[in-house]
Amino acid sequence: MTQLVEWASQYAWAFFRIAAMWMAMPLYGSGVLPMRLRLVLACVCTGLVAPLMPELAVPAAWSAAWWLMLLQEIALGVLMAMSLALVFEMVRLAAELMGMSMGLGFAQMSDPLNGATSPVLGQYFSIIAILLFLAGGGHLQMMNWLALSLIDYPPGLLQLHGETALLPLNWALGVFAGALRIALPGLVALLLVNLSFGVISRAAPALNLFAIGFPVSLILGLIMVLLSLPTLQSNFTAWVLIGFERLADLWS
User: What are phi and psi of 49, to 5 degrees?
Assistant: First the structure.
């Protein structure tokens, strides 16, 4: 009976970290996948990884140390997922910056990935980011990092501290810079267009700039979106790789 309890405890502690990551992971943790399917995926991953874990030193059940260990495992899973979720938010932020400059900020659509409305251009960039993530095997690498974290640093061994908990905040600052790097060429081009129309409005006040400026800004913005796709691909891939490196910072 004691051996059965230890066996079930090992699977349960692995499940806490894995389930927390699945619930907060980009794409899989969104409202697109039903809750039951995410629960099944977490159970499958637990069944594959838990037998590889070493023996755990679990405190007494329902004690203060037990609850602290439980909260730590959930926080670890969420932090691991957030390191990649912020990269996807970088792409959405770049799209929103470009969309507002080219006049598409008013075009909102329901975004099932985030459970809210987002600009049309933001959904376009998000779909490209998802395809790049899946084509590059990012989901497999995420599972690999999760398995390594449970094998090398099983529950109860890794201790979270204040500096580790603030890693996503520091990571968000770099992600904001990455969003500006993607959107900056388009923003500069559209800014020059707006300045040009400002000069034209002073030279010819009777000219209807709303009938001329909006189509020109929209067409130029779409051209800049097309030209920015290679930059989007290179920056997104680079930041995903950096995100995997930040995962190691959670337990190194």
Answer: -95, -35
Query: So what's the pLDDT on residue 53?
Result: 85
- Quick one: tokens of 60? 């007494």
Instruction: Evaluate whether 59 touches 66 at the Cβ level (below 8 Å).
Output: yes
End-to-end CA distance of the chain: give it in Å, rounded.
36
Q: In this structure, is the dihedral angle defined by the CA atoms of residues 72, 60, 153 and 42, taken in order, positive or negative?
A: negative
* Mean of per-residue pLDDT scores for the chain: 79
Averaged pLDDT for residues 158-184: 71
Any long-range contacts for 201-204 (C-beta under 8 Å, 24+ apart)? none
pLDDT category at 231 given cuts 50, 70, 90 is confident
